[in-house]
Amino acid sequence: MRILLFIIPFFVSLSVLAQKDEIDFDAVDSLYREDQFYINFTYNSVRKSPDGFDQNKFSPGISLGFLRDMPINKDRTLAIAAGLGYSIASYNHNLIINTSAANNQYSIIGEGVDYTTDRLTLHFIDLPIEFRWRTSTPENHQFWRIYTGIKLSYLLHDSYKYESATLNIKSTGNTDLNAFHYGAYAAVGWNTWNLYLYYGFNPLFKSSAQIQNRSIEMSALNIGLMFYIL
């Protein structure tokens, strides 16, 4: 009986405390953050390409990752975000990379040469850092946005494939490729759908990669769509 007299008041007091501290799931979160997963799909083109260079097939790219949102004003319409991601970029072109020699040899495929594949594929670990402006509110998470920033990328893996009736080349680990890449990007749009542009600042290849004693200075210019997922 003494135990019962102790237990009953104990549980009554817990019930009172629980009612006082009951969570209101409908309350407005004025300290919200736009932490987001992202995925983008791009068409990969290049700037400063060598004479005669041509991208004769669609060159796709895909990136995915996560961004941590850090608001910097009271209305939380301005923020800094940093994240981590992974991307794959493919380039279909008419540049032959012949790795059979002691030093890689680069040349443009001549007119009339019949080939089925000439593709360079690059895999990166990405570190995006961006400044964010948006029209979001605590009650509405469908909003206009302009996100701009820089992206630092490290080349994890590369592969090259060329196939024709007379020559087949497959190679990986091209030391003429730059290991670190950096550039600016912007994502502009409404809610989930956003236009995306990336402008690479440094070349894809080191100065050791040359055509007719001229360095291959081409760098990335990627255009596509960015999707943010809460």
TrEMBL record:
Entry keywords, A to Z: Signal
InterPro entries associated with the record: Beta-barrel_OMP_2
Signal peptide interval: 1-18
Residue ranges of every copy of the Outer membrane protein beta-barrel domain listed in the record: 19-205
Top-level taxon of origin: Bacteria
Protein name listed in UniProt: Porin family protein
Organism: Flavobacterium aureirubrum
